[in-house]
Amino acid sequence: MMEKVVLGLSGGVDSAVAAARLRAQGFAVYGLFLEVGLGGTEAAQQAADELGIPLYVAHRREAFEQQVCAYFVDCYRTARTPNPCVVCNPLVKFRALTDYADEIGAPYVATGHYARTGRDAQGRALLLRARAEKDQTYMMHRLPRRTVARCLFPLGESAGKDETRAAARDIGLSVSEKPDSMDICFIPDGDVQGWLERHGAACPPGNFVDEAGNVLGRHKGLHCYTVGQRKGLGLALGAPVYVCGKDMEKNTVTVGPESELFKTTLIAGDFNWISVPELTAPMRVKAKARYRQVEQPATAYPLENGLVKVVFDEPQRAITRGQAVVLYDGDVVVGGG
Fold first, then answer.
1. E strand or H helix at 9, and its extent?
2. 88 is catalytic
3. CA-CA to 266 of 20 to 30 Å: which in 132, 272, 286, 312?
C-alpha cells in the first residue's frame, strides 16, 4: 500500500514538480491549496488535474489575516522590519498541511521549498540546507522539530530553478514557464507603503536626524523607510546618506554614511531550536540576519531569559530590528530567533 503524503500545491512550478517527483517515488500524493483570499485556486486545480492527483482546499483566510497580516502591520507600527513567510510557515501553511495529513492518515507533508531533512546520531529530525544555491531554510527555521520530522522536500537535491523548470517541461506541465511568485504574496503590486496606509498602519511625518540628533529634514512616516535605504529620502546633504535606524518614541529616522550600517553584534530572542534543545554554551556557527545574505562566521552566546547574542567575525551591513537571525552548523539549521 502506497504511503500518503499531503503536498502544498500552489499552482506554481516548484510545487508541481515536487508532486510529480513524489508520485514517481511511489507515494500517494494529496494536493492541498491554501486559500487565504488571494485567489489562485484555479491554477492549483489545473496543476492537480495535469498531475492526476486530488486537491483539497484549506480555507485559512481568517488565520492568515490574524497571524500574518496583523503581524506585518504591527511590525511597521513599532518600527520593525517583518518576515511574513517566517511567520506564515509554522502558524498557517504547515499547520494546514499537518491538520489535513492527520485527517486522512498521511504520515508525511511536503512542499516545493528548496530544503532538505535528515537525522542526527540519535535519530532526531534535522532541517538541512538545500544542495542548490537557492536555499529556503531561512524561511522555515521556526518549524517545530515534530513537523520537520514529517517533511519531505523533493527539490532539496535539485541544482536549482532551471533544473526544476526543465523537469516541468519534460513532464509536460503547463506551469513550466510560469513566473516566480512575489516576495510578499498579499501585496502583489509591491506597493508596501500603499498597503500599510490602506490597513491603518501609516505613521505620521517626523524628522530626519543624524547620529548626534541634529534635524536634517522631514520624513513622510516611519513606515516609508527601511534600514539600509538610500533612494527616495529626499535629502540633499552633499554626500549620500542611508537609513541607519528608526525611533518610534521620537518618531525620527536616523540617517548617516554607509559605514554606520555595519555592526558586528546583535541580540535576538524568541528562539526556535531544531538541532539542539537549547543553547547552553558559546557555539561557533554561521549566521544570516536576512534571507538574501550569505551565512557569515559568528559565535552565538546564551544570555538570560532565552536571549542569544550573536557576534559576527566581520561587521555585517544593515542588521535590522524585527528581522530573523538563523544559525547554521554546516548544512544543519541549529535554530533561529
1. none
2. yes
3. 132
Task: Copy the grid coordinates of residue 281.
Answer: 554554551
Place of cell 507515494: 27
- Rounded Cα–Cα distance for residues 110 and 52 (Å): 17
Kindly write down the DSSP assignment for every residue of 79-103, as one continuous string: T----HHHHHIIIIIHHHHHHHHHH
For residues 276 and 124, the answer to whether their CB atoms sit within 8 Å is: no
> Is 151 among the catalytic positions?
no
Closest CA to 17 of 153, 118, 143: 153
Are the C-beta atoms of residues 55 and 44 closer than 8 Å to each other? yes
Place of cell 540628533: 213
Q: Are the C-beta atoms of 298 and 313 separated by less than 8 Å?
A: yes
What span, in angstroms and rounded, lies between the C-alpha atoms of 152 and 77?
A: 37
240-275 pLDDT, tens digit each: 999 999 999 999 999 999 999 999 999 999 999 999
Residue pair 64/123 in contact by the 8 Å Cβ criterion: no
What's the rounded Cα separation, in Å, for the pair 91 and 163?
30
Q: Which of 69, 75, 85, 88 is catalytic?
A: 88
Q: Cα(312)–Cα(128) distance, rounded to whole angstroms? A: 22
Specify the length of the chain in residues: 337
Contact 3, 153 (CB under 8 A): no
**Residue ranges in the chain assigned as alpha helix (H):** 13-24, 41-51, 61-64, 70-77, 84-88, 94-104, 145-148, 161-171, 192-198
* Structure confidence by residue, pLDDT tens digits, 302-322: 999 999 999 999 999 999 999
